[in-house]
Amino acid sequence: MTRIFNDPVDFKDEVLIGFGAAYARYVRRVPGASGFVRAAGPVPGAVSLVVGGGSGHYPSYSGVVGPGFATGCVLGDVFTSPSAEQVHRIGRAADGGAGIVLAFGNYAGDRLNFAAARERLLGDGIDTRIVYVTDDLASAPPEEADRRRGIAGTFVVYKIGGAAATRGADLDTVERLMLAANAATRSFGVAFRGCTFPGRGEPLFAVEDGRMEFGLGIHGEPGVRSASWMPAAELAGVLVDAV
User: Fold this and answer.
1) Could you give the dihedral angle defined by the CA atoms of residues 42, 69, 124 and 120, in that order, rounded to the nearest 10 degrees?
2) 219 is catalytic
3) pLDDT for residue 144
4) Closest Cα to residue 240, out of 188, 194, 192, 197?
5) What letter does residue 186 receive in the DSSP assignment?
6) CA–CA distance, 147 with 60 (Å, rounded to integer)
7) What pLDDT is attached to residue 192?
8) Distance of CA 30 to CAs 1, 20, 33, 92, 148, Å?
9) 10-67 pLDDT, tens per residue?
């Protein structure tokens, strides 16, 4: 596959510049921060939802900033958690005075950096909660559900939180609904080929021709089994049975 890009080092920043220019009616950059808030800013007196994680998972996370969804988003480098400083800056810009929920997929770097940012926001006098999403059933057994990664189900949990905040729910309620949504959400993925980092010639992982991998993580984490290609109806049955 042919790809056209500039210096790979500038990939994330150029994506942010382009997204902000294309969708200025919806989002605005936060000065000195790697992310966006809604163009109109936070709603005064409403709970704010800030989501984030590594770049490379488009439309996450910029594409979910808007009414009824996230108030702001923060992005790290490709497949890399944003720093605590970046999360803190976006949180400050997104604060509407009724508290903030920081939401992200369950990955070690994100948990560490978002937790550090929460402490800073609490120090600023902003009541801040954390919700990390654990929907990937392939990544840990049911008795260790807290270790499961966050994948496609993050969108469901974010939407529930954003909708609740838009309807005027308080911080306790938004947090409770998001935790309940996470507990009720399961995902199970299938991949046919690996992704390729900007500037690299080879994919992160390879899938044998004619085969598919079940349970691969969104960063190339190992799956649970391999199988030959199968018709869509059969594949749907395998995925639904697992969920």
Assistant:
1) -150
2) yes
3) 94
4) 188
5) -
6) 22
7) 84
8) 34, 10, 5, 10, 31
9) 888 898 999 999 999 999 999 999 999 999 999 999 999 999 999 888 888 999 999 9
> Rounded to whole angstroms, how far apart are CA atoms 102 and 95?
11
Q: What is the mean pLDDT of the chain?
A: 92
In 10 A of CB 90, how many CB atoms?
A: 29
What length does the chain have? 243
pTM of the model: 0.90
**Six token digits for residue 205:** 């992982």
Q: In the numeric block, which tokens belong to residue 169?
A: 């729910």
- What DSSP designation does 56 have? S
Which two structure tokens, joined as six digits, stand for 229?
């290609």
CA distance 223 to 214: 6
The active-site residue out of 69, 74, 219, 223 is: 219
* Domains in the chain, CATH or no CATH each: 8-183 (3.40.50.10440), 190-242 (no CATH)
> CA-to-CA distance for 72 and 91, rounded, in angstroms?
8
- Tell me what pLDDT residue 175 has: 99
Sheet of strand 27-29: strand arrangement = 27-29, 35-38, 72-78, 48-55, 100-105, 128-133
Tell me the torsion sign for CA atoms 14, 102, 162, 54: positive
